[in-house]
Amino acid sequence: MDWEDLRFFLSVATTGSLTGAARALNVNQATVSRRLAALEAQLNVRLVDRLTRESRLTAIGQQILQDVLDIEAKAFAIERKCSSSKAAVRSKVTITAPPILARHFLTPNLVTLTTMSPMVQLSILSEPHFASLSRMEADLALRLSPPIEDTDIVKKVGLMQFSLYAKNDYPYALDEERWEFVGYTERQGDFAHKRWLYEIIGSKRVACEVTDLSHQYEAACTGIGVAGLPCFIGDRDDRLIKLENNLPMLNLDIWIAMHPDRRNDTVVRKTADAIFQLLEPFGLGLASNSR
């Protein structure tokens, strides 16, 4: 058996189509179809029913799916342990973080982080979805909610406090009833900041909608309306003022996570320690928020 063919089968199973698998694997659909056919010929069974708009697992395909997932998990475990061993030479550390932390915390500190391991390339994944540490999509994860994989080593390292901000010449800064807000587009799903923001907005007018916190920050700086921003960003920008109010403000814990197989990886642990130390001067550390 060509074990690589199992990877194509698994992608078809998880995406639900040959087209989805091709997109996920960054190959063309013909390659996916060929590798799947080769696996079925080798095993002498039909694993997938190819329909017009989707691909469904056959009964035997469903039976072996968990076995293939187990094989994949073991393969990742071998790779993680080898890359974290003392004999391994690490050339890259990949950090995944929400866009707001990637852009406004990690990126401004890249020089400091790289001086700790000058020959190691830092790769910052700025994505709203959770990257998997077990699948080696990242080595470290910064999160604003606890990571979803139970196997990860998780530590609470900071706190992101929010408040309401507007441009320093916003004409209605002292008139809460006339505030207009910067909101989210309908494409964004349900998450803590969005829920809090729209509870604050209530029946007030939303002046504009954008896709993420960084864009809300930029929009507020134009003077179009009020935005609910992290204090470590709003307090540092002279273009903005913090609006006085008695409304409930949002606080989000900051977590850092790594896979247990990374606990002996010196470079990854040094990078995690550096991130923890940098949170404090940015006003995101636990100590600075406990005052």
Descriptive notes:
This protein is an alpha/beta fold and 291 residues long. The chain has 2 domains: 3-83, Winged helix-like DNA-binding domain superfamily/Winged helix DNA-binding domain (Arc Repressor Mutant, subunit A, Orthogonal Bundle); 92-291, D-Maltodextrin-Binding Protein, domain 2, CATH 3.40.190. Helix content is 41%, strand content 21%. The protein is built from 11 helices and 11 strands. It has helices spanning 3-15, 18-25, 29-43, 59-83, 99-106, 110-116, 192-201, 213-222, 231-234, 266-279, 286-289, and strands at 48-50, 55-57, 92-97, 121-126, 140-143, 153-167, 181-184, 206-210, 227-230, 240-242, 251-258. The strands form 3 sheets. Strands 3, 4, 5, 6, 9, 10 and 11 form a 7-stranded mixed β-sheet that branches. The longest helix has 25 residues, at 59-83. It is globular. It starts with a helix and ends with a helix. The model has no long low-confidence stretch (mean pLDDT 89).
Secondary-structure map:
Layout: H1 3-15, H2 18-25, H3 29-43, E1 48-50, E2 55-57, H4 59-83, E3 92-97, H5 99-106, H6 110-116, E4 121-126, E5 140-143, E6 153-167, E7 181-184, H7 192-201, E8 206-210, H8 213-222, E9 227-230, H9 231-234, E10 240-242, E11 251-258, H10 266-279, H11 286-289
In the CATH hierarchy, the third-tier topology of the largest domain is known as: D-Maltodextrin-Binding Protein, domain 2
Kindly state the number of beta strands. Answer: 11
Largest sheet entry: 7 strands, mixed
Instruction: Tell me the number of structural domains.
Output: 2
Strand fraction: 15-25%
- Class from secondary-structure proportions: alpha/beta
Q: Tell me, rounded to a whole number, the average pLDDT.
A: 89
Q: What is the approximate shape?
A: globular
- Tally of alpha and pi helices: 11
Radius of gyration: 23 Å
**CATH architectural type of the largest domain:** 3-Layer(aba) Sandwich
